[in-house]
Protein backbone atom coordinates (compact mmCIF):
# COMPACT_ATOMS: atom_id res chain seq x y z
CA UNK A 1 0.00 0.00 0.00
CA UNK A 2 1.61 3.24 -1.16
CA UNK A 3 1.82 6.43 0.87
CA UNK A 4 3.31 8.44 -2.02
CA UNK A 5 1.10 10.97 -3.84
CA UNK A 6 -0.75 9.49 -6.79
CA UNK A 7 -1.53 11.07 -10.15
CA UNK A 8 -4.64 10.11 -12.10
CA UNK A 9 -4.33 10.87 -15.81
CA UNK A 10 -7.21 10.31 -18.24
CA UNK A 11 -7.27 10.26 -22.04
CA UNK A 12 -11.02 10.70 -22.34
CA UNK A 13 -10.99 10.24 -26.13
CA UNK A 14 -8.94 7.02 -26.21
CA UNK A 15 -10.65 5.69 -23.09
CA UNK A 16 -7.63 5.17 -20.83
CA UNK A 17 -7.09 6.08 -17.18
CA UNK A 18 -3.61 5.76 -15.65
CA UNK A 19 -2.65 5.91 -11.96
CA UNK A 20 1.01 6.86 -11.44
CA UNK A 21 3.15 7.25 -8.32
CA UNK A 22 4.70 10.69 -7.76
CA UNK A 23 7.51 11.45 -8.27
CA UNK A 24 8.61 8.00 -9.45
CA UNK A 25 6.07 7.54 -12.25
CA UNK A 26 5.42 3.84 -11.55
CA UNK A 27 2.07 2.75 -12.96
CA UNK A 28 0.00 1.59 -10.01
CA UNK A 29 -3.27 1.04 -11.85
CA UNK A 30 -4.99 1.38 -15.20
CA UNK A 31 -8.47 1.32 -16.67
CA UNK A 32 -9.24 0.83 -20.37
CA UNK A 33 -12.51 1.38 -22.19
CA UNK A 34 -13.40 4.16 -19.77
CA UNK A 35 -14.16 7.57 -21.29
CA UNK A 36 -14.07 10.23 -18.56
CA UNK A 37 -16.40 13.20 -18.91
CA UNK A 38 -13.73 15.88 -19.23
CA UNK A 39 -16.17 18.70 -18.41
CA UNK A 40 -17.45 17.10 -15.20
CA UNK A 41 -13.84 16.21 -14.34
CA UNK A 42 -12.52 14.47 -11.24
CA UNK A 43 -14.25 14.91 -7.89
CA UNK A 44 -12.21 14.57 -4.68
CA UNK A 45 -13.72 12.27 -2.03
CA UNK A 46 -12.53 11.59 1.55
CA UNK A 47 -9.63 9.18 2.09
CA UNK A 48 -7.82 10.02 -1.14
CA UNK A 49 -10.64 8.61 -3.25
CA UNK A 50 -12.10 10.21 -6.36
CA UNK A 51 -15.21 10.10 -8.53
CA UNK A 52 -15.75 10.71 -12.23
CA UNK A 53 -18.31 9.86 -14.90
CA UNK A 54 -17.79 7.45 -17.79
CA UNK A 55 -19.66 9.27 -20.54
CA UNK A 56 -19.81 6.26 -22.88
CA UNK A 57 -21.06 3.65 -20.41
CA UNK A 58 -23.16 6.10 -18.42
CA UNK A 59 -21.66 5.27 -15.04
CA UNK A 60 -20.47 7.20 -12.03
CA UNK A 61 -17.15 5.65 -11.02
CA UNK A 62 -15.93 5.82 -7.42
CA UNK A 63 -12.17 5.24 -7.49
CA UNK A 64 -9.82 4.29 -4.66
CA UNK A 65 -6.33 4.72 -6.15
CA UNK A 66 -4.71 3.97 -2.75
CA UNK A 67 -6.69 0.77 -2.20
CA UNK A 68 -6.41 -2.78 -3.46
CA UNK A 69 -9.14 -2.35 -6.11
CA UNK A 70 -9.15 0.81 -8.21
CA UNK A 71 -12.90 0.81 -8.95
CA UNK A 72 -14.81 0.86 -5.68
CA UNK A 73 -18.25 1.32 -7.29
CA UNK A 74 -19.88 1.88 -10.69
CA UNK A 75 -23.37 3.37 -10.58
CA UNK A 76 -25.56 4.06 -13.65
CA UNK A 77 -26.22 7.78 -14.24
CA UNK A 78 -27.62 9.96 -17.02
CA UNK A 79 -25.11 11.31 -19.55
CA UNK A 80 -23.56 13.36 -21.12
CA UNK A 81 -22.31 14.50 -17.72
CA UNK A 82 -21.98 18.26 -17.35
CA UNK A 83 -21.25 18.84 -13.67
CA UNK A 84 -20.63 16.57 -10.69
CA UNK A 85 -20.83 17.43 -6.98
CA UNK A 86 -21.19 15.88 -3.53
CA UNK A 87 -22.03 17.28 -0.13
CA UNK A 88 -19.09 17.97 2.21
CA UNK A 89 -19.46 14.55 3.87
CA UNK A 90 -18.88 12.82 0.54
CA UNK A 91 -22.14 10.82 0.69
CA UNK A 92 -24.77 12.61 -1.40
CA UNK A 93 -23.86 13.07 -5.09
CA UNK A 94 -25.58 14.83 -7.98
CA UNK A 95 -24.78 14.76 -11.70
CA UNK A 96 -26.27 17.13 -14.29
CA UNK A 97 -26.37 16.61 -18.05
CA UNK A 98 -25.20 18.97 -20.80
CA UNK A 99 -24.98 19.11 -24.57
CA UNK A 100 -22.17 16.57 -25.09
CA UNK A 101 -21.31 16.37 -28.81
CA UNK A 102 -24.50 18.19 -29.80
CA UNK A 103 -24.90 21.73 -31.02
CA UNK A 104 -27.20 22.81 -28.21
CA UNK A 105 -28.38 21.49 -24.84
CA UNK A 106 -31.07 18.83 -25.17
CA UNK A 107 -31.15 16.81 -21.93
CA UNK A 108 -32.95 17.83 -18.75
CA UNK A 109 -31.96 14.78 -16.69
CA UNK A 110 -30.48 15.04 -13.21
CA UNK A 111 -29.15 11.99 -11.33
CA UNK A 112 -28.78 11.85 -7.54
CA UNK A 113 -26.88 9.08 -5.75
CA UNK A 114 -26.38 7.92 -2.18
CA UNK A 115 -22.74 6.81 -2.38
CA UNK A 116 -23.08 4.85 0.88
CA UNK A 117 -25.86 2.55 -0.34
CA UNK A 118 -25.60 2.95 -4.12
CA UNK A 119 -29.23 4.04 -4.34
CA UNK A 120 -29.85 6.40 -7.27
CA UNK A 121 -32.71 8.18 -9.00
CA UNK A 122 -33.17 10.25 -12.15
CA UNK A 123 -35.52 13.18 -12.58
CA UNK A 124 -36.17 15.83 -15.19
CA UNK A 125 -35.40 19.44 -14.34
CA UNK A 126 -34.74 21.96 -17.13
CA UNK A 127 -32.86 21.75 -20.42
CA UNK A 128 -29.58 23.62 -20.26
CA UNK A 129 -26.10 23.09 -18.89
CA UNK A 130 -26.74 23.49 -15.17
CA UNK A 131 -24.08 23.76 -12.55
CA UNK A 132 -24.72 21.85 -9.34
CA UNK A 133 -23.89 22.11 -5.63
CA UNK A 134 -24.97 19.72 -2.87
CA UNK A 135 -25.41 21.27 0.56
CA UNK A 136 -25.12 18.73 3.39
CA UNK A 137 -26.50 18.47 6.88
CA UNK A 138 -29.49 16.57 8.20
CA UNK A 139 -31.57 17.50 5.15
CA UNK A 140 -29.23 17.85 2.16
CA UNK A 141 -30.18 20.19 -0.66
CA UNK A 142 -29.33 20.13 -4.37
CA UNK A 143 -28.79 23.60 -5.84
CA UNK A 144 -28.88 23.87 -9.64
CA UNK A 145 -27.40 26.94 -11.32
CA UNK A 146 -29.40 27.56 -14.49
CA UNK A 147 -28.84 29.99 -17.39
CA UNK A 148 -31.18 31.86 -19.71
CA UNK A 149 -33.16 32.55 -17.59
CA UNK A 150 -30.64 32.48 -14.80
CA UNK A 151 -31.57 31.14 -11.38
CA UNK A 152 -30.44 29.10 -8.41
CA UNK A 153 -33.03 26.32 -8.09
CA UNK A 154 -33.22 24.49 -4.75
CA UNK A 155 -34.36 20.85 -4.43
CA UNK A 156 -34.56 18.65 -1.35
CA UNK A 157 -32.21 15.71 -1.89
CA UNK A 158 -34.60 13.30 -0.19
CA UNK A 159 -37.41 14.27 -2.58
CA UNK A 160 -35.20 13.64 -5.60
CA UNK A 161 -33.83 10.32 -4.30
CA UNK A 162 -37.36 9.16 -3.51
CA UNK A 163 -38.73 9.99 -6.96
CA UNK A 164 -40.62 7.13 -8.67
CA UNK A 165 -39.27 5.39 -11.80
CA UNK A 166 -39.74 6.95 -15.22
CA UNK A 167 -37.70 10.16 -14.77
CA UNK A 168 -40.54 12.38 -13.54
CA UNK A 169 -40.31 16.17 -13.64
CA UNK A 170 -39.02 17.65 -10.39
CA UNK A 171 -40.02 21.22 -9.59
CA UNK A 172 -37.67 23.20 -7.36
CA UNK A 173 -38.69 23.79 -3.78
CA UNK A 174 -37.30 27.34 -3.89
CA UNK A 175 -35.25 29.53 -6.19
CA UNK A 176 -33.30 32.77 -6.43
CA UNK A 177 -32.93 34.88 -9.61
CA UNK A 178 -29.47 35.04 -11.18
CA UNK A 179 -28.05 36.77 -14.28
CA UNK A 180 -28.35 34.72 -17.46
CA UNK A 181 -24.58 34.28 -17.95
CA UNK A 182 -23.71 32.20 -14.89
CA UNK A 183 -20.73 29.86 -15.31
CA UNK A 184 -18.70 28.58 -12.36
CA UNK A 185 -19.83 27.34 -8.93
CA UNK A 186 -18.44 26.80 -5.43
CA UNK A 187 -19.59 26.42 -1.84
CA UNK A 188 -18.19 27.60 1.48
CA UNK A 189 -16.18 25.18 3.65
CA UNK A 190 -19.06 24.72 6.10
CA UNK A 191 -21.62 24.25 3.32
CA UNK A 192 -23.72 27.22 4.41
CA UNK A 193 -23.06 29.40 1.33
CA UNK A 194 -23.15 28.91 -2.43
CA UNK A 195 -21.28 31.00 -4.99
CA UNK A 196 -21.94 31.46 -8.71
CA UNK A 197 -19.74 33.33 -11.18
CA UNK A 198 -21.51 35.78 -13.52
CA UNK A 199 -20.54 38.79 -15.59
CA UNK A 200 -21.47 41.03 -12.67
CA UNK A 201 -19.23 39.21 -10.19
CA UNK A 202 -19.62 36.30 -7.82
CA UNK A 203 -23.19 35.99 -6.60
CA UNK A 204 -23.49 34.44 -3.18
CA UNK A 205 -26.42 33.08 -1.21
CA UNK A 206 -26.74 31.65 2.29
CA UNK A 207 -28.80 28.63 3.24
CA UNK A 208 -31.85 29.38 5.35
CA UNK A 209 -33.62 26.12 6.10
CA UNK A 210 -34.67 24.63 2.77
CA UNK A 211 -34.15 27.87 0.84
CA UNK A 212 -31.45 30.40 -0.06
CA UNK A 213 -31.17 34.07 0.87
CA UNK A 214 -29.18 36.36 -1.45
CA UNK A 215 -26.11 38.16 -0.11
CA UNK A 216 -24.00 40.99 -1.60
CA UNK A 217 -22.20 40.23 -4.86
CA UNK A 218 -18.39 39.97 -4.76
CA UNK A 219 -17.09 42.21 -7.60
CA UNK A 220 -14.36 41.02 -9.93
CA UNK A 221 -12.49 44.28 -9.49
CA UNK A 222 -11.60 44.18 -13.18
CA UNK A 223 -13.30 44.76 -16.53
CA UNK A 224 -12.74 41.04 -17.19
CA UNK A 225 -14.75 38.17 -15.67
CA UNK A 226 -14.25 34.63 -14.40
CA UNK A 227 -15.73 31.57 -16.09
CA UNK A 228 -14.37 29.12 -13.54
CA UNK A 229 -14.71 29.20 -9.78
CA UNK A 230 -13.32 26.98 -7.07
CA UNK A 231 -12.88 26.87 -3.34
CA UNK A 232 -9.38 26.81 -1.85
CA UNK A 233 -9.26 23.85 0.59
CA UNK A 234 -6.15 25.36 2.25
CA UNK A 235 -7.97 28.44 3.56
CA UNK A 236 -11.38 30.09 3.15
CA UNK A 237 -10.83 31.65 -0.29
CA UNK A 238 -12.22 31.52 -3.82
CA UNK A 239 -10.13 31.33 -6.99
CA UNK A 240 -10.87 32.11 -10.62
CA UNK A 241 -9.15 33.17 -13.83
CA UNK A 242 -10.46 36.43 -15.28
CA UNK A 243 -10.58 36.57 -19.06
CA UNK A 244 -10.79 39.88 -20.91
CA UNK A 245 -10.10 41.27 -24.36
CA UNK A 246 -11.93 40.67 -27.64
CA UNK A 247 -15.03 38.46 -27.58
CA UNK A 248 -14.14 36.86 -30.93
CA UNK A 249 -12.59 33.42 -30.15
CA UNK A 250 -10.47 33.70 -33.30
CA UNK A 251 -8.59 36.48 -31.52
CA UNK A 252 -7.82 34.33 -28.49
CA UNK A 253 -4.08 35.19 -28.50
CA UNK A 254 -5.17 38.71 -27.49
CA UNK A 255 -7.22 37.55 -24.50
CA UNK A 256 -6.03 38.99 -21.20
CA UNK A 257 -5.81 36.80 -18.09
CA UNK A 258 -5.66 37.57 -14.39
CA UNK A 259 -5.54 35.26 -11.38
CA UNK A 260 -8.38 36.27 -9.04
CA UNK A 261 -8.34 35.26 -5.38
CA UNK A 262 -10.90 36.44 -2.83
CA UNK A 263 -10.16 35.88 0.85
CA UNK A 264 -13.59 35.12 2.38
CA UNK A 265 -12.56 35.94 5.96
CA UNK A 266 -10.87 39.26 5.15
CA UNK A 267 -13.26 40.11 2.28
CA UNK A 268 -10.20 41.07 0.21
CA UNK A 269 -9.46 40.38 -3.46
CA UNK A 270 -6.01 39.89 -5.02
CA UNK A 271 -5.44 40.19 -8.79
CA UNK A 272 -2.29 38.93 -10.53
CA UNK A 273 -1.50 39.40 -14.22
CA UNK A 274 -0.86 36.12 -16.04
CA UNK A 275 -0.33 37.27 -19.62
CA UNK A 276 -2.19 36.89 -22.93
CA UNK A 277 -3.60 33.73 -24.50
CA UNK A 278 -5.61 30.79 -23.14
CA UNK A 279 -5.66 30.27 -19.36
CA UNK A 280 -8.49 28.34 -17.78
CA UNK A 281 -8.42 25.73 -15.04
CA UNK A 282 -6.00 26.06 -12.14
CA UNK A 283 -4.53 23.67 -9.57
CA UNK A 284 -3.76 24.16 -5.89
CA UNK A 285 -0.51 22.76 -4.47
CA UNK A 286 0.60 22.94 -0.84
CA UNK A 287 1.97 26.49 -0.97
CA UNK A 288 1.43 27.49 -4.60
CA UNK A 289 -1.33 27.96 -7.16
CA UNK A 290 -0.60 26.72 -10.67
CA UNK A 291 -1.84 27.95 -14.06
CA UNK A 292 -0.87 27.01 -17.60
CA UNK A 293 -0.88 29.61 -20.35
CA UNK A 294 -1.11 28.61 -24.02
CA UNK A 295 0.00 31.15 -26.64
CA UNK A 296 1.44 30.97 -30.18
CA UNK A 297 4.62 32.69 -28.94
CA UNK A 298 5.20 29.99 -26.31
CA UNK A 299 3.44 28.18 -23.47
CA UNK A 300 4.33 28.36 -19.81
CA UNK A 301 3.52 27.14 -16.32
CA UNK A 302 2.87 29.99 -13.89
CA UNK A 303 3.21 29.41 -10.14
CA UNK A 304 1.90 31.93 -7.61
CA UNK A 305 2.98 31.91 -3.98
CA UNK A 306 0.70 32.09 -0.93
CA UNK A 307 0.51 35.90 -1.23
CA UNK A 308 -0.64 35.72 -4.85
CA UNK A 309 2.70 36.93 -6.19
CA UNK A 310 4.36 35.28 -9.18
CA UNK A 311 6.97 32.84 -7.88
CA UNK A 312 7.97 31.07 -11.11
CA UNK A 313 7.26 31.28 -14.84
CA UNK A 314 8.45 28.07 -16.51
CA UNK A 315 8.50 27.58 -20.32
CA UNK A 316 6.71 24.46 -21.56
CA UNK A 317 7.65 22.51 -24.72
CA UNK A 318 5.45 23.26 -27.72
CA UNK A 319 2.62 20.94 -28.72
CA UNK A 320 2.04 19.65 -32.24
CA UNK A 321 -1.53 20.58 -33.07
CA UNK A 322 -1.60 23.43 -30.55
CA UNK A 323 -4.09 26.30 -31.04
CA UNK A 324 -2.93 28.69 -33.77
CA UNK A 325 -3.62 32.26 -34.75
CA UNK A 326 -6.75 32.48 -36.87
CA UNK A 327 -8.41 29.45 -35.23
CA UNK A 328 -10.24 28.90 -31.97
CA UNK A 329 -8.40 27.53 -28.92
CA UNK A 330 -10.73 24.56 -28.48
CA UNK A 331 -11.87 23.17 -31.86
CA UNK A 332 -9.76 20.17 -32.92
CA UNK A 333 -6.62 21.34 -31.12
CA UNK A 334 -4.39 20.08 -28.34
CA UNK A 335 -4.44 21.60 -24.88
CA UNK A 336 -2.96 21.06 -21.43
CA UNK A 337 -4.30 19.81 -18.10
CA UNK A 338 -2.75 20.86 -14.81
CA UNK A 339 -2.99 18.97 -11.52
CA UNK A 340 -1.75 19.47 -7.95
CA UNK A 341 -2.61 18.43 -4.41
CA UNK A 342 -2.99 20.80 -1.45
CA UNK A 343 -0.98 18.21 0.49
CA UNK A 344 2.12 18.17 -1.73
CA UNK A 345 4.51 20.45 -3.63
CA UNK A 346 4.22 18.65 -6.98
CA UNK A 347 2.51 20.09 -10.06
CA UNK A 348 1.76 17.95 -13.12
CA UNK A 349 1.16 19.40 -16.61
CA UNK A 350 0.11 17.34 -19.63
CA UNK A 351 1.31 17.85 -23.18
CA UNK A 352 -1.69 17.07 -25.34
CA UNK A 353 -1.08 14.90 -28.40
CA UNK A 354 2.32 13.76 -27.14
CA UNK A 355 1.28 11.49 -24.28
CA UNK A 356 3.63 13.31 -21.92
CA UNK A 357 3.20 14.49 -18.34
CA UNK A 358 5.72 16.99 -16.96
CA UNK A 359 6.21 16.94 -13.18
CA UNK A 360 7.45 20.10 -11.46
CA UNK A 361 8.57 20.95 -7.95
CA UNK A 362 6.51 24.05 -7.13
CA UNK A 363 9.09 25.24 -4.59
CA UNK A 364 11.81 25.65 -7.22
CA UNK A 365 9.86 25.68 -10.49
CA UNK A 366 12.16 22.95 -11.81
CA UNK A 367 11.01 19.96 -13.86
CA UNK A 368 11.68 16.85 -11.77
CA UNK A 369 10.37 14.08 -14.03
CA UNK A 370 8.70 13.46 -17.36
CA UNK A 371 6.30 10.56 -17.82
CA UNK A 372 5.54 9.18 -21.29
CA UNK A 373 2.26 7.24 -21.58
CA UNK A 374 1.16 4.85 -24.31
CA UNK A 375 -1.79 7.08 -25.18
CA UNK A 376 -1.58 10.53 -26.83
CA UNK A 377 -3.65 12.39 -24.21
CA UNK A 378 -6.01 13.84 -26.80
CA UNK A 379 -7.04 17.44 -26.08
CA UNK A 380 -4.64 17.43 -23.15
CA UNK A 381 -6.55 14.76 -21.27
CA UNK A 382 -7.49 15.39 -17.67
CA UNK A 383 -5.53 14.92 -14.45
CA UNK A 384 -5.86 14.83 -10.67
CA UNK A 385 -3.15 14.56 -8.00
CA UNK A 386 -4.03 13.26 -4.52
CA UNK A 387 -2.53 12.29 -1.21
CA UNK A 388 -4.58 10.33 1.30
CA UNK A 389 -4.88 13.26 3.72
CA UNK A 390 -4.69 16.41 1.56
CA UNK A 391 -8.28 17.50 2.34
CA UNK A 392 -8.94 18.21 -1.33
CA UNK A 393 -12.48 16.94 -0.63
CA UNK A 394 -13.12 20.27 1.10
CA UNK A 395 -13.90 21.46 -2.44
CA UNK A 396 -16.73 19.01 -3.19
CA UNK A 397 -17.24 19.85 -6.88
CA UNK A 398 -15.84 18.06 -9.90
CA UNK A 399 -12.80 19.83 -11.40
Explain briefly what this protein structure is.
Helix content is 1%, strand content 45%. It has one helix at 157-161; strands at residues 6-11, 16-21, 27-32, 43-45, 49-54, 59-63, 71-76, 81-86, 92-97, 109-114, 120-124, 131-135, 141-146, 151-156, 174-177, 185-187, 193-197, 202-208, 211-218, 225-226, 230-232, 237-244, 256-263, 268-273, 282-284, 289-293, 299-304, 310-316, 338-340, 346-351, 356-361, 366-372, 382-386.
CATH class: Mainly Beta
Count of distinct strands: 33
Write the CATH homologous superfamily: YVTN repeat-like/Quinoprotein amine dehydrogenase
Query: Rg from C-alpha positions?
Result: 20 Å
What structural category characterises the helix and strand content? mainly beta
Whole-number count of domains: 1
Round the mean pLDDT to the nearest integer and report it. 97
What is the 3D shape? globular
What is the CATH topology classification name? Methylamine Dehydrogenase, Chain H
- Main β-sheet description: 5 strands, antiparallel
Low-confidence region ranges: none
Total of DSSP H or I helical runs spanning 4+ residues: 1
The CATH architecture comes to 7 Propeller
Distance between the termini: 26 Å
The fraction of residues in strands falls at over 45%
Level of helix content?
A: under 10%
Region (Disordered): 380-399
Biased composition (Basic and acidic residues): 387-399
InterPro entries: Quino_amine_DH_bsu (IPR011044)
Amino acid sequence: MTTAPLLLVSDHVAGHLHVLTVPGGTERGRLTGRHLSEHAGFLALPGGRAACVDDRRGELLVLDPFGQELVEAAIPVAVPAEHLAVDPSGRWAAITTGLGENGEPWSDLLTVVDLTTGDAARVRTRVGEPGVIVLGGGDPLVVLRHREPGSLAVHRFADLLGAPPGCPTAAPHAHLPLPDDGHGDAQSPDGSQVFAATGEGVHRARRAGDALVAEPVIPWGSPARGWYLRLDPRRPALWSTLRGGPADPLRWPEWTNQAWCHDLDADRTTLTELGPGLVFRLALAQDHTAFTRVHPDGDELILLDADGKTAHRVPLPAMDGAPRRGGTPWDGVQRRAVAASPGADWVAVTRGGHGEVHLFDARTGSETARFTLDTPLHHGGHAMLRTRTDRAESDPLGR
